Amino acid sequence: MNTATAHLLDAFIAPIKPKLGFIGIGHIGTTQMQMLMEEHIADCCTLYDPSLDAASMAAAMQSGITVSNSLADILSQDLDGVVVASPTAMHGDHCIAALKTSKAVFCQQPLAPTVAETQQIFEAARATNKLLSVDFPYRYLPGVETLKQKVAMGEFGEIYAADLVFHSAYGPDKTWNYNVSTSGGGCVMDLGAHLIDLAIFILGNRDIKQVSSNLMQRGKALLPPYEATEDYATAEFLHGRTRTRLTCSWGMHAGRDAIIELRFYGTLGGASITNVNGSFNDFEVHQFAGNRREKIARATGEHGGRALIDWAKTLCSTNRFDPDIEQIIQVADVVDRIYCR
C-alpha cells in the first residue's frame, strides 16, 4: 500500500468529528469548550448565551465559531449535539428542546432541579433515542473503575458504611445559584450530588431508604419547605445495606481550597478517594486492610472536562440513547429527599 492510499484509507475510517453547539457560556462552559478544542475530537460551531458580551468573548477563542441570537436559532442549525450550561432552572426546557430537534445532549450537573424534571428529560432522551450525559467527572478519575470492580468482586466484603465529604472554601460566582427557584438548592445540589453519584456508581444502584438531613445557612438552621439555599448540610441515608453519611458546604473555613473525600468501610476491607493538599484536581485512591493502606491510583491535573470528552468521543461513533444514564434519576431522588421534596 503506497502512502497516498494509506492516507486516503485513514481519512475514510477516521471517526467524523461531531458538530457541537453550546447553550450557556459561563466559567464552566468556557473551560469545557477549551478542553474540547485541545482534544480535537469535536467541532465547536456555535454558541448561545443571553449575554452577548459573554458569547462574543467565548466565540473569539477559535475562528469559525458563530454566535446564535436565540435558543431557536441554535437548535435550528445542523448540529450533532449541544452542551447545556445554562442556569439549572432552564436545563429541562433546553435539554428537551434539543432532544426534540434530534440533537444529543450533554448537560452540566444537575440535570434538573427535581427528580420529576430529571425523569422528564430522561424520557425525552429515550423517546428520541438520543445520547444524553450529565457532567459527573469524578467517575472518570483514575482508579475509580478499579475500585468499582473490587467492590463488585467482594474484595471488601459487605460495604456497611460510607462517608461522603465535600467542603469548598468558595461559593458559586453566579447570583442565580443562591436562589432556590433558579438553582434548585445549595451546596447539596452543587457539591454533594457529585459524591452521591460517585457512591452509587461504585456500589451499584440499590434501594434508598431512611433519608434524613439538616441544612444551614450562615450558621442558622433552615426548615422545610426550603426557600433559602443552604451553605452547610449533613444527611444520612441507607443505600441498600450501606449506611451513608454526607457532609458538604460552601465557603467553609477549612484551611485549604477544598476537602473532598469518599470512604467505604466493609467487613473485609475499606477504600477511599481523597483530594490531595486541598486540590480540586489532584486525587488519590487507596484500599485498606486493618491499619495497612495501598495506593490504587493518583490523578493529577484538570479533570472537570472528562465526562464531556467521553460524551464527545461516544458521539463520534453513535448518537443513540444509552440506558446507563438512568442512574441520574436515583441521584436526583436522593437529593430531592434531602430537601424534603
Short description:
The protein has helices at 3-13, 27-39, 52-59, 71-75, 91-100, 115-128, 144-152, 180-183, 187-203, 306-317, 327-338, and strands at residues 19-23, 43-48, 66-67, 81-84, 104-107, 132-134, 159-168, 208-217, 220-221, 232-239, 242-249, 258-266, 270-275, 283-289, 292-299.
Structure characteristics:
Dihydrodipicolinate Reductase, domain 2, disordered N terminus, 9-stranded mixed sheet, Rossmann fold, 341 residues, 34% helix, 6-stranded parallel sheet, single chain, alpha/beta, 2 domains
What does this structure look like?
The strands form two sheets. The protein has a nine-stranded mixed β-sheet with strand order 9-8-10-11-7-12-13-14-15, covered by helices on one side. With 341 residues, it is of the alpha/beta class. It folds into two domains: 3-135, NAD(P)-binding Rossmann-like Domain (Rossmann fold), CATH 3.40.50; 138-303, Dihydrodipicolinate Reductase, domain 2 (2-Layer Sandwich). Residues 1-14 have low confidence and may be disordered. Helix 5 runs parallel beside helix 6 (115-128), helix 6 runs antiparallel to helix 11 and helix 9 crosses helix 11 (327-338). The chain has helices at residues 3-13, 27-39, 52-59, 71-75, 91-100, 115-128, 144-152, 180-183, 187-203, 306-317, 327-338; strands spanning 19-23, 43-48, 66-67, 81-84, 104-107, 132-134, 159-168, 208-217, 220-221, 232-239, 242-249, 258-266, 270-275, 283-289, 292-299. Strand 14 and strand 15 (292-299) form a beta hairpin. The protein is globular, with a radius of gyration of 21 Å.
